[in-house]
Design brief:
By secondary structure, the chain is an alpha+beta fold. 33% of the residues lie in helices and 34% in strands.
Length: 140
């Protein structure tokens, strides 16, 4: 299963690297062992018998961070990303939800804004990639 997840992440992140104009994109270098040893929770979305999307969740008592949300390019623009974000909102009772993406990743930014996230700040990574952090506060 970890190998399927790794292949899916690489297919999706290859597109994001192009969108960001990134020559050195760390998610594309993630080793198989990293998926297998992760303390985070992974969820998959299957379509037509294929792993079409997946997300990695880092859940804490008061906050839930969507560490990664990827959709295979063959399944782009089908509402799968929104379905996964909604799954998180429905299944985690956090006060705060966060997610990050490359600042130039228009499709991801659009998705997160439509799902009720608000931009909190932008920053530059050590690899020269401009990122944006989004947050959604849940009223308790």
């Amino acid at each position: 299963m970890a190998k399927q997840i790794q292949l899916l992440f690489r297919a999706s992140y290859a597109i994001e690297a192009q969108l960001l104009g990134a020559d050195d994109f760390p998610p594309l270098k993630r080793e198989l062992e990293s998926y297998m040893q992760s303390k985070n929770t992974f969820y998959g979305y299957y379509s037509e018998g294929n792993l079409a999307a997946a997300m990695e969740i880092d859940a804490r008592p008061k906050s839930t961070h969507i560490q990664s949300l990827v959709v295979h390019p063959d399944y782009f623009r089908r509402g799968i990303g929104r379905a996964l974000v909604n799954f998180v909102f429905e299944n985690y009772t956090s006060e705060v939800f966060t997610v990050e993406t490359g600042a130039a990743n228009g499709p991801a930014t659009e998705l997160y804004l439509k799902c009720g996230f608000e931009e909190r700040y932008k920053y530059n990574t050590d690899h020269g990639i401009r990122k944006v952090r989004f947050q959604k506060q849940i009223k308790v």
